[in-house]
Amino acid sequence: RGIPREPGARWTEPGCQSCTCQGGRVLCDAVSCSVPCSHPLPAPAGGCCPTCTGCLHEGVARAEGDVFSPSDGNCTICVCLAGNVSCLSPECPPGSCPSPSPADCCSCTPEKCHFRGRTYAHGARFSLDGDDCTTCVCQGGEVECSFTPCPMLDCPQHQRHLGPGQCCSTCRDPPAPAGCFLDDNGVEFPVGQIWSPGDPCELCICQADGSVSCQRTDCVETCPYPIRIPGQCCPDCSAGCTYMGRIFSNNETFPSALDPCLSCICLVR
């Protein structure tokens, strides 16, 4: 190719051909590369042999000393050292594990529970035979049992009742009142009793729930001279007439207090 070569000279031609001058002849052969690493980088520009100053892993070039995780994850850690990629995976216990978690590196199945001749899956909740008041749960091969929680009751202790087959107490209805008790005078009236508390125009009744309901009576006077009877609420216009403090019966005549020559008569209308 127009260039003189000394006998025994060696050089590299384009296309990674290694040539030598022997006895006036040029002998060429493909360059033989010795790669002493597992993940060499491609030959740099102008070079023929891969280099072990970095690593090529899954198509990605890694620098010397680079620490990385492979694409499949699973908590494996890899490092690039002198063109070699070394990976470490966590040691997982064989068989099942106490509790599965998405963040765990090990893929495992939670252990089942064997309890009283039965097998329960992890997380299963169940009650003991014949005892609905106890709830059990399977956690990683272990069974934990506890009493069923009961709601808070707002009734006093003497009104609480635990029925047969029940886990929690319930509140009994308070006994119905037998009557109405009046604190001011200590008198108790039976349910339905009607009485007057002192005013004849006011009547009270004892309700079924033990309360007292009272109501006043409105009187309408229909005659000019009504008769007021002691202990009676409204004046009576049918019994006679009241005149100057005296009571006269119907159709009774009497002299006028203003003029002795005048005669009056009681007329009930």
How does this structure look, described?
The protein has 269 residues and is mainly β. Among the domains are: 113-146; 179-216, Ribbon (Complement Module, domain 1), CATH 2.10.70; 224-268, no CATH class. It contains no helices and 24 strands. The protein has strands at residues 10-13, 17-22, 25-30, 54-57, 60-63, 67-68, 77-81, 84-88, 113-115, 118-120, 125-128, 131-139, 142-147, 160-161, 170-171, 179-181, 188-190, 194-195, 202-206, 212-216, 241-243, 246-248, 253-255, 263-265. The strands form ten sheets. A three-stranded antiparallel beta sheet has the order 1-2-3, with no helix packed on it. It has a three-stranded antiparallel beta sheet with strand order 6-7-8, with no helix packed on it. Strands 11-12-13 form a three-stranded antiparallel beta sheet, with no helix packed on it. A hairpin with a 6-residue loop joins β18 (194-195) and β19 (202-206). The model has no long low-confidence stretch (mean pLDDT 81).
**Structural class by sheet pairing and helices:** mainly beta
Rg calc:
58 Å
Global mean pLDDT: 81
C-alpha termini separation = 160 Å
- Along the chain, the helix and strand elements come as EEEEEEEEEEEEEEEEEEEEEEEE
Keywords: Glycoprotein, Secreted, Signal
GO cellular component, one term: cytoplasm
Subcellular location: Secreted
Domain VWFC: 1-53, 53-114, 111-172, 178-238
